[in-house]
Amino acid sequence: MRKLVTRGLAGGLLAGAIALGGMAVAGTAQAAPAGPQHVVPPGYEFYDDYWTYAGCREAGLSGKAQGNWREWHCEESAVDWNLWVLY
């Protein structure tokens, strides 16, 4: 009787470990959800990148006031802000 209980317990633990292992593999195979897609307006060209939105905005406004470009657009990236301009 004792051998049957030991075998049954060991078999149950092994089956549980296999099931959990299969779930872990299935969990790692899933793709990460896609983040929001940023779109730069058509015709704009990359000018420079800035650590803050305020720095990007200031450069955009300054360039427009000086007549360097007609319009500007600050786009957030993973680590900074990109200034896109329309000449």
UniProtKB/TrEMBL annotation:
Residues 1-31 form the signal peptide. It comes from the Bacteria. The keyword Signal applies. Keywords: Signal. This is Secreted protein.
